[in-house]
Prior knowledge:
Distance between the termini: 47 Å
Radius of gyration: 27 Å
Mean pLDDT: 91
GO molecular function, one term: polyphosphate kinase activity
Low-confidence stretches: 233-239
Binding site for ATP: 47, 465, 562, 590
Domain Polyphosphate kinase C-terminal: 328-490, 501-668
Largest sheet: 10 strands, mixed
Number of helices: 18
Function: Catalyzes the reversible transfer of the terminal phosphate of ATP to form a long-chain polyphosphate (polyP).
Binding site for Mg(2+): 372, 402
Structural class: alpha/beta
Number of strands: 27
Amino acid sequence: MTDPTPLKLLNREQAILEFNRRVLAQAQREDVPLLERLRYVCIVSSNLDEFFEVRFADMLEAVRDPLSTVTGQDVDRVGRAAHTLIDEQYLIFNEQLTPLLLKQRIVVLNHADRDEPQRRWVAKYFEREVKPLLVPVGLDPAHPFPQVANKSLHFIARLSGKDAFGRDNRIAIVKVPRVLPRVIKLPANLSDGRQAFVLLTSVIRAHLEELFPGRKVEAFSQFRVTRDSDLEVDEEEIANLRHALRSGLTTRHFGRAVRLEVVNTCPAELSEFLLEQFGLPNAALYRVNGPVNLVRLNELIDQTDAPGLRFTPFEPAWPTGRLPRHKSIFEKLKKGDVLLHHPFESFEPVVQMLREAVADPEVLAIKQTIYRTGAKSELMDLLIEAARRGKEVMAVVELKARFDEEANINWAERLEAVGAQVVYGIVGYKTHAKLLMITRRENGKLRRYAHISTGNYNPKTARLYTDLGLLTADADLTADADSVFRQLASLGKFKALRRMLLAPFNMHSRMLELLAQVEAAALSGYKAARIVVKINALTDAELIHGLLRAAKAGAKVDLIVRGACMLPPGLPGVSDNIVVRSVVGRFLEHTRVLYFRWADAEEGEALFLSSADWMSRNMFRRIEVAWPVQDARLRQRVIDEALQPYLNDTMDAWQLGPDGRSVRISETGVSAQQALMRRYSEG
Length: 683
């Protein structure tokens, strides 16, 4: 049901850029360690790469569709916002962080800054490590403009005179191989007590002319092109999704160009030549004052020996009181559910439960969804070992997890090789649900155990993202988990689950029902009508209008939306009862918690955890789960740890305005993440 009241929602792409503006603000915080501030600059670059590869590429595609609502003006506005953000990013890097690094005796030396011994060392490094891998290509009819892969680094040079054959071909391209490190640390004996680095681009610049004997380099620039990298296959027309995706991984690197980056000193004739080669308008040109790929400065952070300039290491706590170490997790779960709050609590109990299942002869079957596990994964190794031991292993591998396709294809092939049953979900729908189910024989009967999570089965990101996971032997939840796996394998008709909600079938409609229930309570005069939603993105129009109707009826609505939010809060008479905040701190906020209150009795409230954000794609084009937290003790813990601290946060929180711009609430006070770290560190 859509709202008849016309309301212009905020632009999704500008909302994504606004989130990155909040992340970039972390690089300006004096209370954040210096190398971590630099890392936030790198994170923004990485985020923007994906933004151009996927979101902006989609906009450019949509604007050519006569049925699309995306206009050329929309594209222009988003492009201008991206230019502004990138300019600000380089300004912070050059004028704030670089001088602060210099004070800490951490320097990046350009050719002009290097003394004679350093130049000799760089020259030898170039001759030994770099030059043998460079192949300059002079352009002529026999050497047309080369294929330039997505995000690969190149140099363009304009040369003097004629080539060896007397021809006036003056443009040359030099590809910089990905295998070369982008940041090189100088030996200590050449660094004068400092930690001195040179960038690979600076090394090549200093010796570029050596690649063109007998000719001078009159002008040059680094450049990098970003391409549309959404991997598309016609799933209705192919016989084997895995084979189609594997072949598509190669062509992904050469999709339609969407952005060209050059250094700000690049002569206009060279940038215009490149724009013409890539078929790009002037608006797609980004002149940057520094390296064209700031992501690679992560190499500098990793090589710098300065523990005091990093976050103090945080070790996730083991839930000792609820899950004693070195004891059977199955035995513990028979007595009650265990809720894990990452990264404040360790992900290791999940791994231990799977280890226990693999080693236990009474465990007959293991089923797991695989979305983003990484190229190396103990969990996947354990599934392979379980299959080798003769257990029934079913893996639902999402091959279309963006930018993880290759790793997931490799895991699928390894699992199939040992006899595991591998399925790829449902054509046209990504499997984004996070489920692990173990079936065990106990006293002649079968009993199921499950892990359900808001996050991925990746121990590395479990130390960096906030997520909630439930270990359970609850008969209803484990039966629901089993039904989801059967649904994915058999493709049978959907049958409502006992307690879980499953997208694309009933999650969206149930969320709308709960919003309407709170709205009705508010209309009837219930003053405590309340909605608190903590998610990563809010872009689904129907859910937005459901929130607006509940708020207009008098319900208090608090939204904690990490990333893109298209609901404009604070509009008089429309959304002035809605507060939207975003928390950006040390960890990436990833939990999805949904709270509704429509009456004073315990039956008058509901709290769900979910794998899904409130986006149309999650609700209608993905397999997602949400499950209610019905145990009063666990429900209160979720409220006390995953909702209330974020509503009280004054240090890491930003508040969204009706114009789509967000303002930091304060620079002092309470940080939810820091408070939770202290709580778990103190036991």
